[in-house]
Amino acid sequence: MNYCLLDIEFEHNGQQQIITPTLLQDEYDKILIDCGYPNFTGLIEQAVNKYDVTLDSITKLIVTHHDIDHVGSLAAIKWAYPHIQIIAYEMEVPYIEGNKKVIRLEQAESTFNELPEEAKSYVQQFMDTLKAVETVRVDQAVKNGEILPWCGGIEIIHTPGHVPGHISLYLPSSKTLIAGDVVVIEQGKLGIANPQFADDLDEAIRSVRRLLDYDIEQIICYHGGLFQGDVRQALQQLVQEYTT
């Protein structure tokens, strides 16, 4: 099994940004982890092409959570390539399938009336964008601690806080953690993803602490790319920042 980082550069709200979905592959499967904003199918295709892979050859797509920058192109990819199995944590299924209002929309709606007038048009546009994300049926719901048998084994770690159903993926064969948004890299250090928007910041810190139970040599962050070095010390330092 090997993993490939799919660094995707784009402009968002007038700023250059990068996200890093992950591609896992072995002789049987090619598995995509997360898939960017709406209309990112072409960018995902270009990114996997760099590794001599086509979207048509992807067998499975695992979603770490339902935020728009992780699932925005999920329905479009499934529509274009219906053979791809969509896999998500059991708590996330109602959001992805459209049976529950997404958390970022709930957050925006709950604070909208208190916003200054000059901010309301931007937030309204954000809410409209969230409402327009196409829903899609999940083919397989997974549980905490479940080990998926592909690509040398993929352990599901429930890492709530950013949103309640957030998961990270542990690859024991390479001692690699695919973090999703449980941690990000900022100025070379591990940090909490948008702590001001975390559904439960205390829970997010507990999730980081939970990662110390794993033998991790590198972390793939959706925002920040690959983190190597003394991972354990970096995780401990992050926990201390928020608990001292």
TrEMBL record:
Substrates-to-products reaction catalysed: 3',5'-cyclic UMP + H2O = UMP + H(+); 3',5'-cyclic CMP + H2O = CMP + H(+)
One Pfam assignment: Lactamase_B
Domain Metallo-beta-lactamase stretches: 18-223
Keywords of this entry: Hydrolase
Coiled-coil features, chain-numbered ranges: none
GO molecular function, one term: hydrolase activity
InterPro entries recorded: Metallo-B-lactamas, NDM-1-like, RibonucZ/Hydroxyglut_hydro
PANTHER family recorded: METALLO-BETA-LACTAMASE DOMAIN-CONTAINING, METALLO-BETA-LACTAMASE SUPERFAMILY PROTEIN
Described function: Counteracts the endogenous Pycsar antiviral defense system. Phosphodiesterase that enables metal-dependent hydrolysis of host cyclic nucleotide Pycsar defense signals such as cCMP and cUMP.
Protein name (Swiss-Prot/TrEMBL): MBL fold hydrolase
Naturally occurring in which organism (per UniProt): Paenibacillus segetis
